[in-house]
Amino acid sequence: MSGEGRWVHSPPRPSATFDEYAIAEIQRAAATGIYDIRGAGAKRKVPHFDDLLFLGASMTRYPLEGYREKCSTEVTLGTRYAKNPIHLKIPITIAGMSFGSLSGPAKEALGRGANAVGTSTTTGDGGMTPEERGHSKTLVYQVLPSRYGMNPDDLRKADALEVVVGQGAKPGGGGMLLGQKISDRVAEMRTLPKGIDQRSACRHPDWTGCDDLEIKIGELRELTDWKVPIYVKVGASRPYFDTALAVKAGADVVVLDGMQGGTAATQEVFIEHIGLPILSAIRPAVQALQDLDMHREVQLIVSGGIRTGADVAKALALGADAVSIGCAALIALGDNSPHLAEEYAKLGTRPGCYDDWHEGRDPAGITTQDPELYKRFDPVEGGRRLANYLSVLTLEAQTIARANGKNHVNHLEPEDLVALTVEAAAMAQVPLAGTNWIPGKTGDQF
Amino acid sequence: METVDLQKTPLREFNQKLHDLQGSSDKAEFKVLNPRGKHAVASGIDAPVSVEIDGSVGYYCASMNKQADVVVNGSAGVGLAENIMSGKVHVKGDASSSAAATGIGGMVIIDGNASSRCGISNRGVDIVVKGNVGHMSGFMAQAGNLVVLGDAGDAFGDSIYEAKLFVRGSVKSLGADCIEKEMRDEHKETLRKILDEAGIGEEVDVNEFKRYGSARQLYNFKIDNLEAY
């Protein structure tokens, strides 16, 4: 090639706007005429806990000795009204995931893992299975719009109830379980024909609005003789008002789920474009609790994109009482494992990217109802892996707490944090690193 | 029969007394006075008891009922007998929205009218409304039967699954995927049994009813149905 030829064409230049994914999605939409459905949470990059740093101890803060001085992790949930609050050894719970979206052995593994480290698991849209109750020492029973499988017997077997108003992946959306995952057992539990697409309601059938919710919570308390805590779960949307209204409605615990929180099956456009990143939602929720003088009396559980002990510690420092994990728990069980690379390739994907949980063809045997697939999954081994992972999260959060001079992980506070970006500083309401500037705040921040 | 005056006895105490009977075969009878619109009256019973309430009740009366026979000599608020499992709940007046919502079994009888969303997400309860039902009744109903002796409002049976809807009067409009269906002998027999159970089999002619149910066109997403979504 002569030296002059290179000036004829400019080199191939991909568009930042029409990037590889955007183009592929246009082509997919043009070919099929239907939106894309998938599992998991938002995949786009959003301000997250990675944009925060802890300061650690220095001249004005005394650290605690690692491996020697105790740093507690236990948390009690439901102290406001319940006769029997939930006592957890670690502030990391397992989020609601249905039998139906997950296989029976996967649900069992979640229970085994949670039991081993002293935390709770949560049912999902489809009711409570005997296996789940049997393998979960502390089980939270979700009261969802669909009420699939809802009955008073299971209600009274639960250690806590969670009224689900929404979830982070789809605030304002109902459930979806496509026909290929509706086995005989799932269909029977949900009183629906086998093989149909189950589009669970997005609104509760017997209450509308916060004033009704207060009466609904009152009913649930009567049904359970005021014994168990009642959580209210909302997707991160209008966290200040949603938290305030949940408190007004009588919640013992508010569960706040950011857009990175997973779903079993939802439209891609819903997952990626509705709802807030969890980083931006925690402070407004905590502010609502503080304004009502209810911080720590009504506990706050946050979720959506928790991966590490650092994430746990940051969420707690921003004012949460506990966190909840869903996607990370599935990964710990074996979802998206590299050893399944060949099988993921057959499904047109690769480890780390598999999110077609709605199709029921999960080679890891977790998000499926196919007996051939789920029998591959060993619930004992899965439970052990989850317990290991939860232990690591806890150890990491303790490490950070000690470094910041705290003898309980819940003693972490916003002033232990700084932000790496202006956006994160504004959302988390902590100073930009190296400055005393909190965007949106005025006055001396020291 | 034990009389409970809710102006004197806290509701919590009364409901606890009912719950303490769970598992017993005691066919105790209770007469409840002065409910005055209280919510969750006689909710969560799991015993073959009889409760007769003199006056109107608030939300969620007799919710999640099992075995019990509950009569309301008055009207009922939102969510009457929601998630009823078995037994019978009979309201002599009217019922507000979402009567018998998500019921799994048993029977709910409303002598007057029922408001919107009657029998929403029905999963097996038989509901008899002697008057009219409001809009969106039978929404997403999965199983069970809704019998309306009067008229039905807008969007009747919207997004219905396998529940059966029987209406003697008019239907203002049908919801998505709900159609009129042939009233065959087996349906008349089903209806007759329900009316007998409700104590009005002698006075109501099953031949006067039309049957409505699912066209089953929205069971699986089809792009051809786009206008229905």
Automatic annotation (TrEMBL), chain A:
Keyword Nucleus: no
Listed EC numbers: 1.4.1.13
The UniProt record lists the keyword Oxidoreductase: yes
UniProt entry keywords in alphabetical sequence: Oxidoreductase
Residue span, Glutamate synthase domain: 78-406
Entries under CDD domains matching the protein: GltS_FMN (cd02808)
GO biological-process terms attached to the record: glutamate biosynthetic process
Cross-referenced Pfam families: Glu_synthase (PF01645)
Enzyme category, top tier: oxidoreductase
One MF term in the entry's GO annotations: glutamate synthase (NADPH) activity
PANTHER family reported in the protein's UniProt record: ARCHAEAL-TYPE GLUTAMATE SYNTHASE [NADPH]
Family (UniProt): Belongs to the glutamate synthase family.
Full protein name: Glutamate synthase
Originating organism: Methyloligella halotolerans
Automatic annotation (TrEMBL), chain B:
Database matches in InterPro entries: Glu_synth_asu_C_sf (IPR036485), Glu_synth_lsu_3 (IPR012061)
Full protein name: GXGXG motif protein
CDD domains hit by this protein: GXGXG
Organism: Methyloligella halotolerans
GO molecular function: oxidoreductase activity
PANTHER family: TUNGSTEN FORMYLMETHANOFURAN DEHYDROGENASE, SUBUNIT C (FWDC) (PTHR39673), TUNGSTEN-CONTAINING FORMYLMETHANOFURAN DEHYDROGENASE 2 SUBUNIT C (PTHR39673:SF5)
